[in-house]
Amino acid sequence: MAAHPGEVAISIVDERLAEEAAPLVRQLVEDRVASRLTAQDPTLWGPDAESEARVRLSWTSLATSSRPLLAEIDALRAELAAEGIDRVVLAGMGGSSLAPEVITATAGVPLVVLDTTDPGQVADALAGELARTVLVVSSKSGSTVETDSHRRVFAAAFAEEGLDPARHIVVVTDPGSPLEKTSVEAGYRRVFQADPDVGGRYSALTAFGLVPAGLAGADVAGLLDDAEAAVGVLSADSDDNPALVLASALGAAHARGAEKVVLADTGSGIKGFGDWAEQLVAESTGKGGTGLLPVVVETPQSPGFSNAGDDATAVSIGSPADGAVLGTTGTLGGLILLWEYATAVVGRLLAINPFDQPDVEAAKKAARALLDSSDSAAPAPAFVSGPVEVHPSGGLLPEGTDSLAGAVHALLAAAPAAGYVSVQVYLDRLDDASAVLLRTQLARSSGLQTTFGWGPRFLHSTGQYHKGGHQNGVFLQITGAVEQDIAVPERPYTLGGLQLAQALGDGQVLADHGRPVLRLHFTDRAAGLARLVEALAEVGR
C-alpha cells in the first residue's frame, strides 16, 4: 500500500513474516494498545516500567501541543535576521541533534551540527563568521559534557571577537534544569523550555527538534501538519494500523532470531532518517540482553541489506526494494510518529521498558573518571604497525600476533556466527569522512552485520544496545592524534583529552562486559586510515 500526502503506510513483502505478525497485531488491537498509547497510559509495559512511562509519553500529543512554539521560533528568526545573524550552529547530542539534522537536511537548509568532541571539527565550526552565528545549545539536563564544552568554547570565541556571547546563544532545555539556571544568569538571548515528559529520543517534535530546525529555515509548521495527519491512523485500534503492523513484524522476526533491523533509503526524499531511527530503536529496545539492533546501510545494494541473513530484517525507508522484507512510506512528520509508535509497541512485545537507558551512564562515568585521574597516561599499544597503534582488550589477540591484518582477523573471529561488528570512529566527521567506507569493507570481509558510528555521538544511541542488548558484538574503535587541540574554558581538560577519554571509557566498559574490543590509534589520521584499508584487503574469513 502506498502513502498519500500526510499519510503513512507499511508494506510486508515476506508472506511468512506477515502470517507470523498477524496474531500479534490482533492481540494488540484486542488490548487497545494504540488508543491507550495515544491516551498516554503508563501501564502498557508492566509495573516495573510504569513510573518511568508516566513521565515519558507526552510525545504522542506533540503534533498539537508544540504549535505555540511556531510563532516564537518565527519571531526569533526574524529578530536574528534583522541583526544579520543567519548562521545556525547546533550543540547537542543524541536526540537533541539527530532530529534537527534530518529535518534540515530533508528541507535543504543549512545547519552546522556539533555532536562531536573532535577539536578539528569544532574548529571548523568556529571558523565560520561568528558575527552571523547563533549557537543553539540543546540539552535536557544541561549536564551533557559535550554540549557544555561547546557552550564554553563558543562563548569564549564570541567574546574574543568582541561580540556579546549572550546575544548569540539560544538554549533549549527542560524547565528547572541546571542549564536553564545558568542560561538565565548569563542572560542568554532566549531560553526555550521543552516538554519535560518526553525522552530525548522521542523529542523530534518538541523544542529540541523544532527550534534549531526552524531557526535554520525548515518548514517546521508543515512537519507538525504531517505528523498530525498521521495521528488518526496511528492511534486506531485496527488491523490496518501501520505502527501495530510494523511493531508486530519486527517482534515476530525477533522471535525467530532476527534481532537486527537493516535500514536503507529507497528514494523516500528524506535525508538521514536511518540515523535518527537508529537511536530511537537501539536505545529504546537494547536492554536486558535483548533488543533490536539497527544497521544503517548506504544503499539497498549494500552488504547487510541485499544479502541479509536470518539474523536480520531488511527494512526500506520508501517503497520496498529488492531484498527488503518491509517498507515504510510517508512524509517525514508521519514517519517520525510511525516509528515512535512502533518502537514503543515493540517494547511491550519484547517485555522491556522502551523509555529508560540503564547502560548509557556507565561509559560517561568511566570517561569522567579518566578525565579526573591525575595519572591517566595513554596506555601502551600491544604493537605498532606504521601509523597505527594496536590496543586489544585482554585475551583478544593470539600470542605472536604482530600484524594489523592479524589483529583485525582476531577481532572478527571472536564474533559468533550471528553476531555483529560495531565500527566506532572518534575522528572528524567532515575531514575524516572517508572512514565511513570501513563499514562496507568490514561487512564484506566478515560476512556479519556491521554498524558504523561516529564517536562520541553513538554513545547517546547505539551505546545502550552495545552494553544492554544481545551479547554477540565485537567492537572496532578508531582514535586519532590531534593536530591542534582546543582548551575548554574553566575546565581542566581539552576537547582532544575529552574525546580520547570517551573512547577509552566506553572501551573499558565494553571489555568489562566481556565484549571483544580492538582500538586502533592513528598517529597520522590519513596515513592510518590508508594502512587500515590495506589491512582489510588482506583479511579473509
Automatic annotation (TrEMBL):
Residues 76-221 form the SIS domain. Pathway: Carbohydrate degradation; glycolysis; D-glyceraldehyde 3-phosphate and glycerone phosphate from D-glucose: step 2/4. GO terms for cellular component: cytosol. Gene3D superfamilies: Glucose-6-phosphate isomerase like protein, domain 1. PROSITE patterns: P_GLUCOSE_ISOMERASE_3, SIS. GO terms for biological process: gluconeogenesis; glucose 6-phosphate metabolic process; glycolytic process. Its EC number is 5.3.1.9. It catalyses: alpha-D-glucose 6-phosphate = beta-D-fructose 6-phosphate. It is an enzyme of class 5 (isomerase). GO terms for molecular function: carbohydrate derivative binding; glucose-6-phosphate isomerase activity; monosaccharide binding. Keywords: Gluconeogenesis, Glycolysis, Isomerase. Belongs to the GPI family. This is Glucose-6-phosphate isomerase. It comes from Actinokineospora cianjurensis.
